[in-house]
């Protein structure tokens, strides 16, 4: 019985050690990916009307210092206030901006300040599939 209890305690300790809370960086990274995906879905959805087409392009790279200005501009964009999906997306962008400038201010490292890279992102090439014969 003691062996079983000690084994359970050991397994519980191992689970708690692996269940660390998310870091500031991981939260910013996941939220930026979520926003980028939501923006892509919004552009291709049936709800995309003329105002959605006029929204500023939203490609987020949290390692680029210009992402802060990009988020500010997107949140302040005056059109599409009545489209629910756009309002939700703006709220997520506002949250990301707040996290980046206040909570994670000291934890983030910007590797570049190339604003044009956010306007015209260079995406990694797609590897051709290997055909086995």
TrEMBL record:
Keyword Signal: yes
Keywords: Signal
UniProt-listed GO biological process terms: positive regulation of transcription by RNA polymerase II
Signal peptide boundaries: 1-19
InterPro entries: CYTL1 (IPR029253)
Keyword Transmembrane: no
Protein name (record): Cytokine-like protein 1
Organism from which the protein derives: Limosa lapponica baueri
